[in-house]
């Protein structure tokens, strides 16, 4: 503190502001815990607002892309409108040193541009780019890392894909969380699944709404059934059974393991189906009841 030049005072002031912000946020923790609890159980005004379809179906899946690309979008916008690249030295590694010198209407425009670009990346380009990257690696290495027979059941497909991604032993009882899947590897998983089921509507949120590979298999199987009913033309093998380890020998398992549990969580399908204009399984309850025997491997 013996230095009194302007540069040091400006730097010290910036650091002091961050320290105050850090301290005050900790002081507010008791009140924020109550608010966070309300969000966790889905109660309160904030939870109600955050449950809006625009946020849940579109913006939430694209939120990570918004975080990653908001400054890049701004810098390209600055170059396009000002004729120079916006790049100033930073006092801190993770933040820009000053507020963006743009008008308020430009901020709204940039917000829309960033959100739209992030949504396009999430729902149109991510899976394609991951698929191309995987094909490039396979071409360069000369190895096909994932070969799945056309007659494989949904459960068999998922077991092989998840095991290939995580490198661990996977069966229908394996917990998705404990298998090693994360927010990043879930994107790879979705891309791999869509390689096998081209018309499938699936998001990262769907993966973390279920607990086990068997439950995820039931979710994917019902999505495929709904796609076929809506003209997708896909027919999947529901009769093939796989073996899984149990406490007393080996037990039989098929794609219907958690069909009833999946029905209780049909709101997950409702969110995803909104993107393709498909009907909810709850709207076709009688159809689902009559078709559930297919999931049990019975002849209809």
TrEMBL record:
Segments of this protein annotated with the region Disordered: 278-300
UniProt domain Carrier: residue ranges: 145-224
Tagged with keyword Membrane: yes
Keyword Ligase included in the entry's annotation: no
Transmembrane segments: 20-42
PROSITE patterns given in the database record: CARRIER
Keywords from the named record: Membrane, Transmembrane, Transmembrane helix
Pfam family, one: PP-binding
SUPFAM superfamilies the UniProt entry points to: ACP-like
Domain of life of the organism encoding this protein: Eukaryota
Protein name: Carrier domain-containing protein
Organism: Leptocylindrus danicus
Lineage: Eukaryota, Sar, Stramenopiles, Ochrophyta, Bacillariophyta
């Amino acid at each position: 503190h013996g230095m009194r030049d302007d540069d040091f005072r400006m730097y010290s002031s910036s650091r002091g502001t961050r320290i105050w912000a850090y301290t005050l946020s900790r002081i507010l923790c008791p009140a924020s815990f109550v608010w966070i609890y309300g969000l966790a159980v889905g109660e309160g005004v904030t939870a109600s607002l955050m449950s809006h379809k625009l946020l849940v179906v579109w913006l939430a899946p694209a939120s990570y892309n918004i975080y990653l690309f908001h400054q890049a979008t701004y810098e390209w916008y600055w170059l396009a409108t000002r004729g120079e690249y916006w790049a100033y030295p930073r006092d801190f590694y993770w933040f820009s040193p000053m507020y963006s010198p743009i008008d308020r209407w430009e901020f709204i425009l940039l917000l829309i541009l960033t959100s739209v670009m992030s949504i396009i990346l999430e729902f149109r380009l991510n899976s394609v780019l991951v698929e191309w990257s995987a094909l490039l690696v396979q071409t360069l290495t000369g190895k096909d890392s994932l070969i799945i027979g056309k007659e494989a059941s949904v459960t068999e497909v998922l077991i092989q894909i998840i095991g290939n991604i995580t490198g661990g032993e996977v069966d229908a009882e394996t917990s998705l969380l404990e298998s090693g899947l994360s927010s990043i590897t879930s994107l790879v998983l979705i891309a791999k699944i869509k390689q096998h089921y081209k018309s499938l509507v699936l998001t990262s949120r769907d993966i973390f709404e279920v607990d086990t590979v068997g439950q995820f298999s039931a979710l994917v199987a019902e999505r495929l059934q709904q796609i076929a009913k809506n003209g997708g033309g896909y027919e999947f093998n529901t009769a093939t059974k796989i073996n899984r380890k149990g406490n007393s020998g080996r037990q039989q398992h098929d794609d219907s393991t958690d069909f009833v549990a999946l029905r209780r969580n049909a709101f997950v399908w409702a969110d995803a189906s909104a993107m393709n204009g498909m009907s909810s399984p709850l709207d076709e309850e009688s159809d689902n009841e009559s078709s559930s025997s297919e999931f049990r491997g019975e002849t209809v």
